[in-house]
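Entry 14. Two folds queued back to back today. First construct below, sequence then structure tokens.
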Amino acid sequence: MADGACTSRHPALREIRERTYKPVDAWWTVLLVDPLASRLVRLVAPYRWLTPNVLTLIATVIGAGAMAGFARGDQRGLIVGAVLFHLSFVVDCMDGKIARLNGTGTVFGQWLDFVLDRVRVFFCALTLFGGQYARHHDVAYLWLMSVAIFLDLIRYLNGGQVDKVRRGMAEELDALGFPVESGDEPRSLTGRAGACLRRNRIRTHLFSGIEYEMFVYIIGPLTGLIFEVTIFSGAALLLFEFVLIIRLHQATKAFPARLAAARASVSPADSEPVPVAAPASR
């Protein structure tokens, strides 16, 4: 079959869910994105020219439309911007699903997706808050823009470092034959409530970067409460990130003892000695 041809096969929704859904995901994605994205994936999956990279570029173009709406600053522009921002996010989620479904993902595609996501959100911040400043001549919107961009940056930096530390600890235990649960799901809620959320694929870290962006760039513009929603979202993001930091601190404190116990249970004949390396602290 020639490149770019249509396979004429539309996969079943059940197959899409089984092969492309993450085991756990943000509640906004599970409830408000996946039901639409899965059906759109079913429509476009046979068209191999619609690669993940093409979908990433389409999401960016739709995001540019959101920027134009935000820049207008009036009620109609804000509503259009919010709707297009959500649609851009839906298409952005489709690229990963298509990559998993058709096996067309690439390392470069992962880089492109990450970079264009950051570019889209950054310029949406500039146009949303800049548009409000141009309309109301209130410098507070410029300060709010700075805070929104800063929090989004901090969230990405902190999330990356938390994952890096957890992966490092998991790899050391795994090398001794003691596999641990994946650190891909940040947990902020435990007990019965947490178990119920996880059964429904909703991660217990209820206000992650996804919810933060959706509240700032969708809920705020739709309600007209840009200032109030952005402040609430920033506070909620910091609260849940602080919970992650506390749990990471607890895990790193317990890790040397866990690693020592794992080493003690492995006989010298079974494995080579593995040096104990406690996580670096500052």
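Second construct, same run, same settings:
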Amino acid sequence: MDEDAGTTDAASGVSEAADRAEDAAERAESSTALRTAARTGFVASGLVHILIGWIALRLALGSGGGDADQSGALASVAQAPGGEILLGIGALAMGALAIWNALEAWFEARREPTVATKLSRAVSYGGKAVVYAVMAVAAGRFAVGAGSSSSQQTEGAAAPLLGNPAGQVLVVAVGAVVVGVGVFHVVKGATRRFERDLRREPSGSASALVVACAMAGFIAKGVALIAVGALFAWAGIGADPDKATGLDGALHTMAGLPAGTILLALVGIGLVLYGVYSFFRARYEDL
């Protein structure tokens, strides 16, 4: 009898602790401090995209400019005066944005009425949480001088998998998922679905600027992701890790296509505009 009572008390204690933890997480989700930090994360993300777009433009013009990917952009910031401090702040801000999205993935999904909408919310916010967490870690590594080329990381991650058929299938599947995410970005930009993410839009000419930047930005980012995913899938089909080169390799490959420099320049401009749109998100995103 005493053992049963002890077990019941222990279970009750665990349940109360879990309830307190969930209450604390829900308060954090709605806190002004976390939301302010998360909005700063959009600014940091915008800066990274603008730098990637600028590097891509330089590549299209034949003037080089470093790796046309996240690591190249972060390296550019790290080399600037005070850049490591700026990257540290950006890492914290994007980390806050990742935490906010992770909390939304849990609480927003629970608030939805159907299983389908619960799953949709969880996947949407959960995916964003992973993306911003990766960006935060990358910025943090460059802030402390431990950053490295993302293309090398991608090749290194793919190489062990391509030694067996199951690994090749997995690499192809990952590539297909990235292509799917790219297509989603293109559709989101072309159909203006991004407007659902905004708590309100600016009026007049400012509204037109936000919409133009978002449409061009989402489509350009989608095209870039489709190129990355296609190369990754091709690496899996051919069991060649050298083809899994990440965004930098995808943009270099794009430059080598017929009229590729024009396409690359358009993608570069689009990524810059996506960065500008991220600045607008810092103010108008529905957090």
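Quick look at the second one. The mean pLDDT is 82. The radius of gyration is 21 Å.
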